[in-house]
Amino acid sequence: MRNLKLLKSLRRSELQGPGSPQCFYVRADTGSLLIASQYSITEYDPRTGQVVSEASLTADSFLPEDGSGVVVGLQDLAELESACLATASGDVVLFNLNTCQLECVGSVDSGLTSMSWSPDEELVILTTGQETIIMMTKDFEPITEVGIHQDDFGEGKFITVGWGKKETQFHGSEGKQAPTVAWDDRRPRVTWRGDGQLFAVSAICPQTGARKVRVWNREGVLQATSEPINGLEQALCWKPSGSLIASTQRHPNKHSVVFMEKNGLLHGDFTLPFSKDQAKVKELLWNSDSTVLAVWLEDMAAGEDGQVNSHIQLWTVGNYHWYLKQSLDFGRDPQKAPVCVCWDPERPLQLHVVSRSWTSITYDWGWMTERSPGLDATDNANVAVIDGEKILVTSFRQCVVPPPMSSFELQLTSPVNQVTFLCRPQGTNQVAAFTANGQISIYSQGRLTKLAECFGLPSKMSGIYLIILAALLDDPLALRQLLWLEDELFVGVSSGLLPTSSTLQMLRPVQDATDTLGVRAAVEVDGVVVSVVHCSQTGTVALQLEDGQIRKLVWDCPEPSVEDWRDSSGCRINFPVPCIQTALCSISGEECLLGLTDRSHLYAGDTELASNVCSFAVCNDFLLITTHSHTCRCLHLGTLTVKGLQAALASDGSQNDETLRRVERGSRIVTVVPQDTRVILQMPRGNLETVHHRALVLAQLRTWLDSLRFRDAFECMRRLRINLNLIYDHSPKVFLEKIQTFITQLNSINQINLFLTELKEEDTTSSMYPRPESSSIQHQPSSGQKKVDVVCDALRNAMESMDPNKFCLSILTAHVKKTVPELEIALQKVHELRAPGAVSAEEALKYLLFLVNVNDLYEHSLGTYDFDLVLMVAEKSQKDPKEYLPFLNMLKSLEPNYQRYTIDKHLKRYKKALLHLSKCGEEHFGEALQLVKEQKLYSEALKLYATDSVHYKALNCAYAEHLVEHQQAEQAGLLLWRCGEPVRALQAFAGSSSWRNAICVAQQIPLPPDQLALLARDLAEKLTEQRRYADAALLLDQYAKVRSSAATVFLEAQVATFTRHRTRLAVVREQKEKAKLDMLDCPDAELYSEASSVMTGSKYSQSNSRISSRSSKNRRKAERKKLSLKEGSPMEDRALMYALGEMITSVDKMRVHNLLKALVLFQFDKQAAKLQLSYEEALQMMEAAVPEVWPESLQNSQALLTGPNSTANSIMASYQQQQRPAASQQGQYNV
Question: Which residue stretches does the UniProt record annotate as biased composition, category Low complexity (predicted)?
């Protein structure tokens, strides 16, 4: 849905010469023009207006001096730095562009009718006066010569499969072809395919007098001959992409451009907008990328002055429809009529025209989508497509109509060249068309412009014709870049006083002639203006020059002017390279001009944003682009800087990145519907697709939710499958405050139910739809309740206060959708439905069954103890009455409390079952006790019985047994002591080493002294094993009457533990030595050793790297965790060595000498002697064990581990290991 928009035109009339141009060619390397006339050949640079080189063709008699000579072909040969031309007299001449010398490289006696070089300039085809084809190399060596007219079809001859006989078939006008038209120049036409492998020749058949097309290959072998085509004309051009050959055909009732395949068969056509004998087609010309077909026409009938009119039309195709995009009318002046037309070989949309008066005009077009510039909901998102005398307008806000169809058509009387929409806000649905005859037609949709009111036009779509002053219409498309700024103000660009300048024409209605626009002001611009763009928000008009410079038009003042474009700091801003599409926008509050080059580079001023952009559009502070990586990005300009835009476009996007979505390859943005979520994309084949970009959708939803338009947001979210949790998550506090507004706006039970059923605990604003960085974070209410419960309760309370009967089903949904479904409450409400106007109980139950599994609902209905409700649910289920009726009848026969106990036990609600069973009397206590034991409901059961009852005591005893089984003997002892079971309590306390409680219970019983002493000794032994030496010594002293000190007990315990660890260490070392020998005997021992060392090293390094940053205390703690005394652990030997070292250190640090002094002072000599002896024996035993525990070989191997592979932790560990054996060497204390 793009139009061709003229970017600039360069008109040069400095070149003058004798005769008139006959052939011309564009040099690809320099851009200069090679023009040949009947007298000379000239190289001319239209940009400077200078003649580069020139040579006379009559001086060396290549052409006659009387001007009757004809040049039939001209070609630039870049490799030879020469130009090759062919004359009708038969000479092939080389023109050296450096020396300006002419050289005849060959001559044909019969003369030449055409010359055509292959695209790779390796071959040249000459057609002679004898109707033969001469194929030569680039060095002009002949390859072959064949006749144009061949009786054979060619190598591609079709195979007949025998379906009927030729004599019995209808052949139309075959064999009765009409001769060619009188104006045909009867010369052969030669055209090459883009790859240079095939060429086609159109020539007049001698037998029929009609034209026929033949296709030849590169070796000069005929491939195919076209089918007989009545009215086939002289124009011939092969599409560079190689698919079709274009020509023209005159039908009895129309004039068409037809297309042939390489096998000569017709393949499509389109009709020219002329009657049968109105115009003749002189040439057809494809541009280099095969997107535009130029048709050069000339009127058949002369005007009153005897002159004919000339036209050049530009056609494009989309969705198999041909559009007439541009029409250049050169008028009836023979001096202005084009004599040579050619596309530029390097720039696909640049067209060169040379007139009879030697004036050269260069037109540069660009692809542009004409869309309405509105930013509010009144804009219909119109897109206008030019198609000859029609404008196809599609209003994408109302509907999406695929091209070539449209919402409506505007029919004009002349071909349309430019379309522009009114830039004034609230009036952007009005369109103006500039036609080839110099008129502007204004159309209004819905309401009229001020201009329309002046003419009293009807209120529907209608046109007004305003005649432009003739001074602006000397050449075709003299006025370009038309912009409709205000109701009575147009701005256009025309050529300036100098070829390198432009003039901005400010056009307003002329007071004396109401149907005429006149120039009210003209602003000269130093540079060629190639684009004019307007911003509807700020009213700014920006200009871009051909070299990328940016200017600003100050137009809303009495004297319009042009000034440099500057940023907020006052620096001039220009594009690095010229851009073919521009748009104004605001980035972080600063107005900026965006530009897209023909190389897919997107610029914001002088900063490149991306280099893979297909198309872009700006709408409502959003920048949308499509890229060559098949993505569509949507970025909010208000929250990003230029650097931020660069970073965003360079990133690949995260999983939940709302700015990114995938699109089809080659998608282009047609338009964006303002204040909406729709983006219209056009695919390469021409069809349209509407996408709702996630960024636009979420931005629109946030706007609606902020303005409390819940219904609009809900409908959009449901249609586009946006999670409905966003309604609450966007602003929880506001939603809860305006919950009645939410219910009132939705006013639909189904929609409220849908919202409730989609509720989740997940916060969608932090997972699925992250908030924009600039938005404020809305925190969830900190009530401690879950989100689903909060919303369900709030909605239920609001609906119950508004109309409980109307919202009955939604209230049930709110109960059911809570995190712990309130099914009993919901069932009870269903059972109580009796109010008039409300839904029936049966309907409510049926709806409830839709939300909840029927079996679950049956179980919960049973839990209400309401058998009528149970029967109502059971009847709606798939259960067999034989299954549930006997069970219900059995329940009805039971006592009420026992009945409820039975139901609760069936539903596995054991706490409720115990409550009801406790009310059934003493005869059921045994059953209750069994239930308590099975379900471990001891705490709940103790609350249900009096503390002085027998049942309470029985429960306490059962609870104590349970605690003993679970290694909680002390708590069990307290329960038994409390309920009067001292003997059992004593056993429990003794088993848990709770010696104080045990002594108290023993004294309460009371136990005899000898049994009490025995109990104390047993308890002391257990305490000693638990290393509670002080408690053990206290027990022995006060209750067992054993006068032994705690120090003696401690020493004895340490010696026993030391001996046990020492023995175990010897066993572990023996096992490790044996395992090492076994590994050495294994053939793969070396491999295992290396692998184990690598694994051990990596593990050690990883462990140390994890704790390297910890404090020294934490590091020591982490090291100790590695040492486990558990048998079979990997580092058991080191753990045993560490434990033995700790015991030696603890024994050595005992302050025995102070204790011995005190014992002697108070005449405890025997105890002192015993302690002295025990301490001395312990030290001697430990000292004797040092060589065994820390042998000399081990001490030598434990040198400091230093080196490049060591860490601070490993060195410290090595140092500590060396220090541990030193404990045994410290001084002994003697008294």
Answer: 1099-1111, 1213-1231
